[in-house]
Amino acid sequence: MAKYRHQLPQLRGPVFLSDGGLETSLIYHDGLELPHFAAFTLLRSQEGREALARYFRSFAAIARAKGLGFILDTATWRANPDWAAKLGIGPAELDSLNRDAVSFAMALREEFERENAGKVVVNGVVGPRGDGYVVENAMSAEEARLYHARQVMSFEAAGADMVSAITMNYVEEGIGIALAAKDKGLPVVVSFTVETDGRLPSGMEIGAAIESCDKHTGIYPSYYMINCAHPSHFADAVADNAPWLGRIHGVRANASTKSHAELDATTTLDAGDPIDLGRRYRALRDSLPSINVLGGCCGTDHRHIAAICEAVLPA
């Protein structure tokens, strides 16, 4: 059963943490194989479930030590029909895995909240239909709405508190996911990724994407985020005091300053500098005073999240 669906606690202003780069941590730190970056397949085995639990516990421990709430994501960024087909997973099993991902997260929430952590929000993650870095086979907003509806429905039925469209590289897909969530009465967050020039891979500016998504959804998203880009890539793009900046409540940055193309080509992990990343988050709060959801993306782990906390939060 959903616990916070009708009153998301992070909307009231306190800082909430999220995790870091799930897939990069599991591959490079834990030595796991994740074909197509599909972490949701780990739910098929006890060993995989234990790896996911260890991963999320490392971040929940930081939130508990700081007295903060936690956004607990499902491991479902790749759990849509196109990626599932590449993995030999049919519609029925995909639906079961999406629901199981929520149940798994809810069990972890019970554990985390029982240990006197802050509130833990279960977030159903919806990833892009195609590659997160490249706009390919772009859909209209209505096509995206229909395409992602089944996964959103699975999350709603399983009891997720909210859903998030993560690593959106063109606006129509974000709009479609927001509308699919609206159809099911689920709170939704849309998170865009940007290139080194601060624009979406489609070429659209962040502000234009947020304004377009709000316009076409009736301002339905609870808030927006930026993920899978280093702060140096978008710091200038959020420095103009425009009204849309108030709609951005979260940042999940990459550890590396490399471009998406460079990251795609690399075979080693670039963990960057956790201390520098924390300082950049602190600087971002001057441009984005509404941000209160802090986490990481590719290349980040518990060290980066701890450094962000140290830099951003008062002692």
Look at the structure and give the mean pLDDT: 96
What is the CATH third-level topology name?
TIM Barrel
Which strands sit side by side, in order, in the main sheet?
Answer: 1-2-3-4-5-6-7-8
- What coarse outline follows from CA principal-axis ratios? globular
Radius of gyration: 18 Å
Query: How many strand segments?
Result: 8
CATH superfamily: Homocysteine-binding-like domain
Number of helices: 11
Instruction: Please report the first level of CATH classification, the CATH class.
Output: Alpha Beta
> What about the largest sheet?
8 strands, parallel, barrel
Fraction of residues in β-strands = 5-15%
Bin the helical content.
Answer: 40-55%
Low-pLDDT regions: none
Q: What is the CA-CA span between the terminal residues? A: 36 Å
Indicate the CATH architecture.
Answer: Alpha-Beta Barrel
How many discrete domains? 1
